[in-house]
Structure formats: C-alpha cells, structure tokens
Write a structure and sequence with these properties.
- The chain has 5 domains: 175 residues, no CATH class; 112 residues, no CATH class; 96 residues, no CATH class; 82 residues, Alpha-Beta Plaits, CATH 3.30.70; 211 residues, PPM-type phosphatase domain (Phosphatase 2c, domain 1), CATH 3.60.40.
- The chain is built from 26 helices and 17 strands.
- The longest helix is centred in the middle third of the chain and has 51 residues.
- The chain is elongated and about 145 Å long.
C-alpha cells in the first residue's frame, strides 16, 4: 500500500512538472523571447526536486510544443548540462553553489545559440533570451528558498514577494495562449489565486497580484484586455474579505457576469466563458480553512505578531505591578528588622545597674552597710563607679585603684574587686553579643532593602511598553535574504534611549556569519553587537540577540608577585562583565600575606562580585560586606580598590578603601584617585571614597596593591615611573610595573604585589 501511495504521489508530481513546463514553454515576451522554461528547470533542481522526474517532464513538454530535430537537440543539451554536473557533485558529496547553477544554465543554451547562428537568426534576441532565463532562474530560487527550505511558517520578504509575482506573471504569459474553445485556463488560474490572496493576504498584495497577472497576459499578447477584469475581481473579493467565503465567491461571480454582459469586455460572453471562474470558486470553497490559514502565515504574519506584541506589553505591565508590590514587601521587611534592633544602654545606665548589683551582692550583708551607704554615700558611690569605669576601659580593676580611705574601713575590697571585674566582663560579653545580633539584623535589613531596590528597578524597566519597529524588521529580513542568510523571524525594539535590540532566528550555519551583524547594523543605522546566542525551539535554527554596541571597550593585563619567603599571595583581582554594558575591575588586598590573607581577600572580592552581579547599589554592597567581615571578630581586614566602568558613556565609578592611589594616564594628563577610608572589616560604619571620572579612548587605568606603591618613595615618584613606561599593551605595562617595583628593593618583594592595567579602546 505504501509503495502504491509512493508511485501515485510520484505520478502526480510528474504530471505537475509536465504541465508546468508546458505552460512556461508557451510563455513569451511579445512572442519573441521564451526564457522561462529552462530557468525553471534549474531552479527546481536547486530546490532539491527529483531530477529523475524533472528531466523527462521537461523533455516531454518541450517536444509536445515543438517536435523537431533542432528542438530535441536543444532540449537534450540543456538536460545534459544539468544532469552531468549535478550527479558529479552528488558523487563527490559536494553541494552545488548558486553561481555554478547560473554557469551551467548559461552553457545549457549553447545549442540554441548555435542554431540561431546557423539559421542567420537574431543573435541579440537569443542572447537576451538566455540572460533573462538565467535571471528568471535566480528569481525562482529566491521564492523556492523561502517556501521549500523554510516552509510555509514565516512571512515572505519584499524580495521573495517580487520573486513570487514574477513566477505568477510568467505562468499567466503561458496560460493566455492555452484554452479549449472559449474555456480559458488563464481565467481559472487567476481567479483562484485572487480568491486565495484576498482571503489570506493584504488588500495591497491582492491588487498587485491581479495587476501582475494582467501584465503577464499583456507580455504575451500586447493586449491589456485582461487587466481590467482581474482588478475588478480583486476589488469585489476584497469588499467581502472579512465575511464568509461564500460572499467573496458571490461577489466575484456577479462581477464576472457584469463585466461580460454589461461592460462587454469579452468579444463573446457565454456560460463557457464564465465557467473557469465558477470552477475556481468551487475549488476555493472546498479548500479547508486550515490550509488557507497556514498559507496566510507567509503573507499575514504581521497581524499575528501584532497580537503577540500586544500580549508581550500586557504581560510586562502585569509583571511590573507584581514586581512593584514585591519591592514594597521587602522594604516593609527591612523596616521591621531595623525596628527589632536592641540598642545597648548608655554608660551611665550601665554604671548605675552594675553599682546596684554590686551593692546588692556584696554590701547587703555587711554590718557597715548603713555607715558606708548613708554617712559616706557620695564617696562610696563615686569609688564604685570609678572602679566600674576602670574595668570597662582597662579590662580589669586592681587594689591599687581602690582609695586608701576605703581599704582602711572596708573588709570586702577583694570581694568588691572580684565582683566588679566579673560583672563588667560578663556585661561586656553581653554587649558584644547584642552588637553582633544587631549587626546581623542590620545586614539582613540592608539585604532586604537592596533586594527591594533591585526589584523596584526591574519593575521600572518593564513598566514601559516596548516599541517594536516593524519597518526595520522587514528591512532586516530583506537585507539578510539578499546576503543569503536565512532568517525566519526578526524582532526589533528600543530598550532605552541608548539601546536598540534585535532578536533574529537564523539557520545554525548562518548564526556565526560576520555579515549578519553588518546587515543588522546597516538597517538600524548604528553599530550592533551580538550579546546572546542560544538554540531556537525550531530544530536547526539559532536565536541571535543583538543590541547597540557600546561606544567603548577595554582590554586588560595583570601581573602578580608573591611576597618573598611567602608561599601564597594575599592579593586577589577580578575583571568581570556586568549587565548594562558595565565592566567591574578590582583588587582586594588581605592584610598581611599567606593563606589567611588570601582567603580573606578572596572572600571580600567574591562577595562584592556577586552583589554587583545581582544589581545592588554601591553603598549597600560596601556596607554589607564590611559588616559581614566585621562579624568574624578575627581581625579580617581587606583593602579594596574597585572600578565600575560604563562602556556606553565612558564614566567610571572608583570605590577605594585603604587602597593605594589609582592613576588614569592619557596623552594630555595624569589623574590620581586617592583613598582615605579604613580597610574593610575594621570599623562597623564605613564611608569609602566614591569618585566619578570621565574616561576617553586611549586612557590607561592602573590599579596596584600596596606591595607596589610602598616600593616607591612617594606617589609622585611612582607617577614618574609610570610615565616612563613603554605603553604598548596592558599586559606589558603590568609586567613592567612589577619589574620596576622589584628593582627598587633589589629584587625583593616587600609584600604581595599586584598590578592591574585597563586600557580603554573604541568598540
């Protein structure tokens, strides 16, 4: 059964090819040029149609029209120049290029040219005929590439529509000469495609198709008689476009009757004259809407995509509201945590509490209590408060701190000292624990506030509607098709005033082509860059996302040297790309050297990197990292030197904590960015230096750790050394800095050394 179905499908396909070539053999330009048939043969071969069906169909159709020796030889030469190169490429497993098809199609008309010369025919007309045939082949390849390779799932580009119209025009040129009595196959074909176009495409395309069909008949006959009926059919079909198919059919049939009987555009109007339109109407009526809807995609995709774009913007609006509400939730949680912070008592309150507790514990059972706390109440209280203060400040009070007048009359001095020292130590531990708990709550509160701000920023980003640029989308599709890059869909929109985004779905083989970026940039009128690429949901296709290329780019070099006689460096560096075209570069210098310093600097840098990647603000990042390190109570200190460079506008934020001076060197001046704050982890509250600098192309940003800066006498001497360096590339500069620093100490590294050099270049 399957074999029978295969034979049946092959037979139907073969008959279709015979009819197609028969029509195109009849197609002409003013009955002088017949360029369409051989061009279609090569185009169908390129489209991977079965050659063993194409060749006999082409031969039969040609001989049916002109059964002569010259015709047979011309047909056989054409077939030979197709089959031999084709199967040679098949055996070599090599795909024939388009230019090879063009070359072989030219050579296939050698016999026709020879017969023209022998018979003293017009060589010029024959040459024009051959050239037009090759051009027709390339035109047909364009539409076959769209429909055969991509399928009926994507909108045709302008160039592909033109190609389709040229094929329809050639078919109409051939059909105008084929009829059975008064029955016109041209009217059958044109009325059917007008029905289909009116139902599946725009009004403009329908009218253009009607005009194209009339122009095809005009080419062959020099008679515009069919132009008017075809346009009237199209107008009548479009009037009922948004109604049921039956109304479209009735409208076109009525117009045909009026054209024939009232306007008398046909020489003789009979039932047979109107029969082609009736048959095409019946075929159109029985065509399933599912088929028509699939066909509509290649013309009417913009409507579906408009609905899709409206859904996208609606979803963005809803997402913005939900994110805004979520940001408020995290902000409320931040407030709750801050209100949970239990501040410690003041020193006066602490002294009062401890004084009362010591009196209760030591003096309550002493027989001299009334004498000390009534007669000498003020002096006794003063002594106790001074002892408590000394214990707080020095950690311990001793007998030397007790006045002699008290030791002479009090037998509990040892007990008092022990109680003061014990209670003070306990209370200090309690205050430390309370401070740690409060710090933890502050950290949590700050993280909640940071999350709230990040979510609020996201909410604002998705709050505005995306403005899709349909005109540029179509231009990109056309431009890519012209450069033989198969793109089945393109979306272009403005993300913000500085950034335009284009998302393309292209063949896997085309995703890496440099021409792709150039084409999109040409249409968008600005430099574009690929920022994301991933497999499409459709097999063998890739999604390529491009956006406006930032004005600047950078390259970096780094060089490090571990402190002499130390196995591990306490310096760490980082250069990472953040969102929104920003670059983070940093050096973290753990206090000291060795494994412990390395772990602390690495921890500091990792925290900061992750906070920046998450989108937190500078203030929240530094404050949170500082408090986290401060909780260790293990002398975790880290000098930090951070730069965040915006590649779009060239503004760099420098954040410095106990780090050496940063130099920005260009051809005109040397800028210094100095630090004044303490390292991370020393104090609870930290105010780092944050400074903005405008960066230009050719600038060098130089960050170093203190192992390098301390090797020079001063910042000025270090600057002079930098100016004397050979500025070729960042890596060589970083290496030279390390060499100069080591030379100042006779090759001895006084501390861990790191030099990070960033060069700003034009993108």
């Amino acid at each position: 059964m399957k074999k029978f179905d295969k034979i049946l499908k092959g037979g139907i396909l073969f008959l279709s090819f015979v009819l197609l070539f028969f029509v195109l053999n009849n197609a002409s330009i003013n009955n002088l040029l017949y360029p369409f048939s051989f061009g279609m043969l090569f185009a169908l071969t390129w489209a991977n149609q079965k050659v063993y069906l194409l060749v006999p169909a082409y031969l039969i159709a040609g001989l049916t029209l002109d059964f002569s020796l010259n015709s047979a030889i011309s047909l056989l030469v054409t077939i030979f120049m197709l089959i031999v190169p084709y199967y040679i490429h098949v055996l070599c497993k090599k795909v024939m290029k388009k230019w090879e098809f063009g070359l072989f199609s030219l050579l296939s008309q050698t016999a026709t040219l020879v017969f023209t010369i022998v018979s003293n025919g017009s060589i010029l007309l024959t040459a024009i005929n051959i050239i037009l045939g090759v051009l027709y082949m390339y035109s047909a390849i364009i539409i076959f590439e769209a429909l055969v390779v991509r399928g009926f799932t994507n909108k045709l580009t302008s160039l592909e529509l033109i190609s389709l119209f040229i094929i329809v025009m050639s078919l109409c040129s051939g059909l105008v000469n084929i009829s059975i009595g008064e029955f016109s196959f041209l009217k059958l074909f044109v009325s059917l495609i007008i029905f289909i176009f009116a139902f599946t495409s725009s009004s403009v395309l329908t009218l253009l198709m009607a005009i194209t069909a009339g122009f095809g008949a005009l080419l062959a006959t020099n008679n515009p008689i069919f132009m008017t009926p075809f346009v009237i059919w199209a107008l009548c079909a479009l009037v009922f476009k948004n109604h049921h198919k039956v109304f479209m059919i009735i409208g076109v049939l009525c117009s045909e009757v009026i054209i024939g009987l009232y306007f008398k555009l046909y020489p003789i109007f009979t039932i047979v004259e109107a029969l082609p339109v009736v048959i095409s109407a019946c075929i159109f009526f029985i065509l399933p809407n599912r088929w028509l809807n699939e066909f509509a995609v290649i013309f009417n995709l913009s409507k579906d995509r408009l609905a899709m774009k409206n859904v996208v913007n609606r979803n963005r609006e809803l997402l913005s509201k939900r994110l805004s509400n979520l940001a408020e939730v995290f902000n409320d949680m931040n407030i709750i945590y801050r209100n949970m912070i239990k501040r410690g008592m003041s020193k006066d309150d602490v002294k009062k509490v401890l004084y009362e507790e010591i009196c209760e514990k030591i003096c309550s059972y002493c027989p001299e209590r009334n004498h000390c706390h009534r007669t000498f109440a003020d002096s006794t209280k003063k002594v106790f408060e001074e002892l408590i203060a000394i214990a707080f400040e020095r950690g311990k009070a001793t007998l030397i701190d007790i006045p002699s007048y008290l030791t002479s009359r009090c037998k509990q001095t040892t007990a008092i000292l022990g109680s003061v020292n014990t209670l003070t130590a306990q209370y200090k531990k309690y205050l430390t624990m309370l401070a740690d708990v409060d710090s933890s709550k502050i950290i949590i509160a700050e993280q909640l506030l940071g999350i709230s701000k990040v979510i609020d920023t996201l909410s604002k980003e998705v709050d505005s509607n995306i403005s899709f640029d349909t005109v540029r989308e179509n231009k990109i599709l056309d431009e890519l098709t012209y450069h033989n890059i198969i793109c089945i869909d393109a979306v272009v929109f403005e993300k913000d005033i500085h950034t335009e985004v284009a998302s393309l779905v292209v063949r896997n083989d085309d995703a890496q082509k440099l021409r792709l970026v150039d084409c999109v940039g040409k249409v968008c009128g600005q430099k574009m860059a690929v920022y994301e690429m991933f497999p499409s949901a459709r097999p063998n296709y890739t999604v390529v996302n491009l956006k406006t290329a930032p004005r600047f780019d950078c390259m970096f070099g780094v060089s490090q040297k571990t402190k002499s006689k130390s196995s591990t460096s306490g310096d760490n560096y980082s250069v990472i790309k953040l969102q929104e075209d920003k670059i983070l570069f940093a050096i973290s210098d753990g206090m000291g050297s060795g494994e412990k310093a390395e772990n602390y600097s690495e921890l500091s840098l990792a925290l900061i990197e992750n906070f920046y990647k998450a989108g937190f603000d500078n203030d929240i990042i530094i404050s949170s990292v500082n408090k986290l390190l401060n909780l260790h109570k293990d002398d975790i200190f880290s000098a930090l030197d951070i730069g965040v460079l915006d590649l779009k506008n060239g503004i760099c934020d420098f954040i410095k904590m106990a780090s050496p001076v940063t130099f920005i060197i260009n051809t005109e001046e040397v800028k210094k960015v100095e630090s004044s704050s303490l390292p991370l982890g020393i104090v609870d509250k930290l105010e780092p230096l944050v400074k903005k600098e405008v960066i230009s192309v050719g600038d060098y940003i130089i960050l170093v750790s203190d192992g390098i800066s301390d090797s020079f006498e001063s910042d000025e001497s270090f600057k002079e050394e930098l100016l004397s360096l050979n500025k070729s590339n960042p890596q060589e500069i970083a290496d030279q800095i390390i060499e100069r620093a080591l030379s100042k100490n006779k090759g001895y590294a006084i501390d861990d050394m790191t030099a990070l050099v960033i060069k700003i270049i034009e993108n």
